Amino acid sequence: MENKQGKSFRYTYSAEEQARIRAIRSKYMPREESKLEQLQRLDASATQKATMYAIIVGVTGALILGTGMCCCMVWAGGWFVPGIVIGLIGMAVVGAAYPLYSRVLTKERARIAPEILRLTDELIK
Asked: Which of left, alpha, beta for 6 (phi over 0: left; psi -120 to 50: alpha)?
């Protein structure tokens, strides 16, 4: 830069300031996902979907089971036998959570297998 007398001067930032500038700049730059990050994200997506379905089914079954227990213990009179039936249905739904998890996980892994294999081939080479 030149000042009014025509003399120029130059200034530089210290290394610490340069690091801060780069850190701030990196927040605003579009981020590109590396191949390893893509691989990890794809692998986690299969497990997350299966886990989500299993949790939903398991919690629903537990609520049904709890309703059956309520029928047996609180409203004992005419609700005892229907409460047992409702509780057994709840147990069956809870028991179905793990097979559902396994099935969804297998399907999701089969669906994303070509992309996973392509990325691993690129990373190994």
From this structure: left
Residues 6+ apart with CB under 8 A from 5: none
Does residue 38 surpass a pLDDT of 60? yes
At residue 8, the 3 state secondary structure works out as strand
Q: Is residue 9 part of a domain?
A: no
Q: What is the three-class DSSP state of 75?
A: coil
Q: Kindly calculate the radius of gyration of the chain based on its CA atoms and give it in whole angstroms.
A: 30
Helix, strand and coil content of the chain, in percent to the nearest 5, comes to 80, 0, 20
Distance CA 125, CA 83 (A): 61
Residues 81-106 have pLDDT tens digits of 899 999 999 999 999 999 999 999 99
Q: What is the pLDDT of residue 79?
A: 86
- Domain membership of residue 2 (yes or no) is no
Output the pTM of the full model.
Answer: 0.67
The count of domains in the chain is: 1
